[in-house]
Amino acid sequence: MKIYLAGPDVFLPDSIEIGRRKQEICASHHVSGLYPLDNVIDRAAADVSLRIFKGNEAMMDAADAIIANLTPFRGPGADPGTVYELGYMAGRGKLCLGYSNDPSLYVERVRRCGAVVERDGRLIDADGLTVENFGLGDNLMMIHALDLYGSALVTPRETPADIWHDLTAFEACVRAAAARLPAAPASG
Amino acid sequence: MKIYLAGPDVFLPDSIEIGRRKQEICASHHVSGLYPLDNVIDRAAADVSLRIFKGNEAMMDAADAIIANLTPFRGPGADPGTVYELGYMAGRGKLCLGYSNDPSLYVERVRRCGAVVERDGRLIDADGLTVENFGLGDNLMMIHALDLYGSALVTPRETPADIWHDLTAFEACVRAAAARLPAAPASG
């Protein structure tokens, strides 16, 4: 049983090491973690980004589930690349799990980025755009995809000291996936 | 032939009017635009966000294609809710089109948000995370999904005066979709 490990973890300076730690946690729960950086890509090729896309997609197609790291990335919401992959896996009918190491509500994080005011019963940001205010951790499409196709977004009670390296919430997702999927010997 | 009209347009103060304009453009190209706000949702219900999710998903399942508005939203990247929908439609094997009214490269927009420096041959942001630098308009997953499953991201030559209301790039997507899909009378 294979789980695609999606997230902006691939952008960390120690991205290979964090992938290895995630795969060890998977193995300890008798599942196999597929990590994007394990794809062998010729980084000198002219079409390197297309090769990365195809490698990631092939890994997703080979996986039974996704665990998406939805920790806010360069703004109040999750990394769009990761969110694309969550949507893709939902569309393919795969098991969808996700976590965020930031337990705050989406609306709280938009407030931190700038003024949010109430107008005509709606919360609006500085550009006049409505701020989703459903008491959720991020955009409703991701949150409810997890609710319906896997299990609810996992968040810690408090933001961990190292938001990019703490894997407690990740491990909770692995545990939930392992309990949902048929057991098989871990291979990765 | 039905096209799901995804985008942060639903957060605009005149979100209903912009949806109506998008649907008119679709009709003029003999295709039917499905706009999320056309779902009838009881906004007083306790589970309103789940109802919105289910309504949007049913619309996507009924559609042959998606046109995603990937104009940067609350940060350097596209709206994660819209990106989820693009991923979902790609996963379902539907025709995928998208546009952004900001023609700049992703790396340029990250620079605008804060310092980007080069270290060990990588561009990194203020948090030490790698900045994708493939000469693309946004994260490679979305960009290449469009390349492979529809047509390349449409952007204007210059940012239009009204980034949220200019529908020139949107209409180019409609034209491309209409040329790719079997003709049928527009119904919406």
Structural class of chain A: alpha/beta
Kindly, what is the distance between the CA atoms of the first and last residues of chain A, rounded to a whole number of angstroms? 10 Å
Helical content of chain A stands at 25-40%
Oligomeric status: homodimer
Shape of chain A: globular
What is the arithmetic mean of pLDDT of chain A?
94
Number of helices of chain A: 6
Sheet with most strands: strand arrangement of chain A: 2-1-3-4
Structure description:
The structure is a homodimer of 188-residue chains. With 188 residues, the first copy, chain A, is α/β, with parallel strands linked by helices. Chain A contains six helices and six strands. In chain A, β5 and β6 form a beta hairpin. The longest helix of chain A is centred in the N-terminal third of the chain and has 15 residues. In chain A, 47% of the residues are buried. The mean pLDDT of chain A is 94. Chains A and B meet through α2, α3 and α5 of A and α2, α3 and α5 of B.
Task: Please write out the topology.
2 copies of one chain form a homodimer.
Chain A: E1 2-6, H1 15-28, E2 32-34, H2 48-62, E3 65-69, H3 80-91, E4 95-99, H4 106-113, E5 117-119, E6 122-124, H5 140-149, H6 168-180
Parallel strand pairs in A: 1-2, 1-3, 3-4
Antiparallel strand pairs in A: 5-6
Notable traits:
alpha/beta, 188 residues, four-stranded parallel beta sheet, two-stranded antiparallel ribbon, homodimer
